[in-house]
Amino acid sequence: MADTMQFDLVSPERRLASLPVTAVMIPGAEGDMTAMANHAPTITTLRPGVLRVESPQGTSEYLVTGGFAEIGADGLSVLAEKAIPMDQLKRAQLDELIEEARTTYKTVQDTDQPHGLVEDAAKLLADMEALGTHMSL
């Protein structure tokens, strides 16, 4: 059996996963990455996307809207802003997340916010819309 590491996924609402895994594909803000046992210690921010978890029991996927991932040699902890198991995600939930991102973008655009904040909101909206385009819900 391949080397495993402990994986924990939590959101403000609940703990979604806690299990040994062989690999986790992470939608990092600076690019996608895969964490496996004995990974170099890393902390990264997440962008909206799909977190794919491979374990001896099979593969599971979660929609995350952002957050942080802390990777160590023997474990990975993901603290997600929002996380939904893909097999439980409904189109209405995704549409709600897209609308929330659209509202945030319009708000920062209209309130004379620093340019970087407007760019971040635009990126969030683009990421959420791209998720909606690539998912078959």
Name the shape in a single word. globular
Roughly what fraction of the amino acids lie in strands?
A: 35-45%
Helical content stands at 25-40%
| Rg over CA atoms | 16 Å
Q: How many beta-strand runs?
A: 10
Largest sheet report: 5 strands, mixed
Q: How many angstroms does the end-to-end distance come to? A: 35 Å
Residue ranges: pLDDT <50 for 5 or more in a row? none
The number of helices is 2
The class by helix and strand makeup works out as alpha+beta
Record the strand order, biggest sheet.
2-1-9-8-5
What's the order of the H and E elements?
A: EEEEEEEEEEHH
Arithmetic mean pLDDT: 88
Describe this structure in words.
The protein has 137 residues and is of the alpha+beta class. A five-stranded mixed sheet has the order 2-1-9-8-5, with no helix packed on it. The protein has a five-stranded antiparallel sheet with strand order 4-3-6-7-10. Helix 1 packs antiparallel against helix 2. It is globular. It starts with a strand and ends with a helix. The mean pLDDT is 88.
Key phrases:
137 residues, five-stranded antiparallel beta sheet, 2 helices, 29% helix, 42% strand
Question: Helices, strands, pairings?
Answer:
Elements: E1 5-10, E2 15-21, E3 23-28, E4 31-35, E5 42-46, E6 49-55, E7 58-64, E8 67-71, E9 75-80, E10 83-85, H1 91-110, H2 115-134
Helix pairs in contact: 1-2
Question: TL;DR of this structure?
Answer:
The chain has 137 residues and is of the alpha+beta class.
